[in-house]
Amino acid sequence: MGWTVRDIPDLRGRTIVVTGANSGLGYVTARELARRGAHVVLACRDRRRGAQALERLLGQVPEARAELRLLDLGDLSSVRAFAAGFADQPLDVLINNAGLMAVPYATTTDGFETQFGVNHLGHFALTGLLLDQLLATPGARVVTVSSLLHLTGPGVLGEERHYRRWRAYGRSKTANLLFTHELARRIEASGADLLAAAVHPGYSETALHAKGPRLAGSGTGRRIARIGNRLFATDPEVGATPTLYAATAPDVSADSFTGPSVMGVRRLRGGPGAGWRAPWTRRDRLAERLWERSEELTGVHYDALPPVRAASAD
Questions:
Q1: Where are the membrane-spanning stretches (predicted)?
Q2: Residue 186: CB partners within 8 Å, gap ≥ 6?
C-alpha cells in the first residue's frame, strides 16, 4: 500500500506556513497538518475568507494549533510585512500553495503580470524573506505547488506580444519548478540543512478552474469547468496528498516533483509518486537567469545561499 495521510508523523512542536489556506488544496493541507499537531499558519489574502477557514478548521480539529495571518502575494509590501512577523520565530516548513489559474490579463500592485507575479514572484520573495528562519531550523523544507500544465509554458523570461492566459499560467508553473531547481542547487552547494521540493495535485477539484472563466465573464467556460470537475477531478482530499507527502515524509529528495500516481505509472489520480516534468525545468542556466531576474524584480536576495556556476546550458 502506498503513502497516505495516515503516515504523516507526529508534528507537535513544528511550525508550518501554508499560503492560500482558506480553500481547496491549501485548506486540506493546513487541516491535516494541524490534525497531526503542527502549529499551522493560514496565510490568506482575504481576512473574511481566512477567518471562515480558520473557524471551519477548528470545528473539524478542535485541538488544532492554528492561526490566520494576512498575506497578499500580489503585493510585495504585504509579503514583507508577513515575513517580518516571523523575525524571531522558528519555521519548519513553508508550503507555497496559493495561486491563480488562467485569469484575464491584469497586473499586481507592483506592476507584474498577475499570474507570474502571484504564482512565482510572490512566493520567491516570501521564501527569501523567510530564509533565515528556515535555515535556523534543522530539517526545514520549502514545498512549492506547481502543475502538470507547466508543459504549456516552456519559456519564462521573454515577454509575449499577446497575452494568452493558459500559456501565462503554464509559464508561472514552469517558474515554480525552475525556482525549486535553483533553490535545491544552492542549498546543496552551501551544505544547508534545508530541503526544496515541488509537487502537483493532478486534476483536483478546486475553485481555481472556475475563477478564470468567471473573471473573463465566460458562462461557457464556467460550465465546462463544472463538468470537468464532476467527471474527471479528484476531490481536494486526494489532491492535497502529494503536498502533505513532500512536507512530511522522510524519503523526499531534493528537487523532486511529486504528484498522483497509480502503480508507479504517471496518472492524474492515486497516491503520491514521482511526477514527470519537462526537461527545461532542470536547465541550470535557465533557472539561474530566472533567479537573477526575480531578485531584480522583487528586490529580495538570498544572501545566505550564494549562486552556483551553472553546470548545463539551455
A1: none
A2: 302, 305, 306, 307, 308
Write the CATH number for 57.
3.40.50.720
Cell of 15: 511550525
Which of 207, 51, 84 has its CA nearest to residue 42? 51
R_g of the chain, CA atoms, integer Å: 18
Task: Measure the CA–CA gap between 163 and 105, rounded to whole angstroms.
Answer: 7
Q: Is residue 304 part of a domain?
A: no
**How many domains, in total, are found in the chain?**
1
The pLDDT value recorded for residue 198 is 98
- CB-CB contact of 254 with 197 (8 Å): yes
Contact 222, 215 (CB under 8 A): no
Q: Is residue 118 part of a domain?
A: yes
Question: Average pLDDT of each block of 10 consecutive residues along the chain (314 residues)?
Answer: 90 98 97 98 98 98 98 98 93 98 96 97 98 97 96 74 91 97 98 98 59 50 44 71 97 96 48 89 96 98 92 57
The residue segments making up the domain with residue 290 are: 9-298
Give the start-end residues of each E strand in the chain. 15-19, 39-44, 65-70, 93-96, 140-145, 194-199, 257-262, 265-266, 272-274
Catalytic center residues: 169
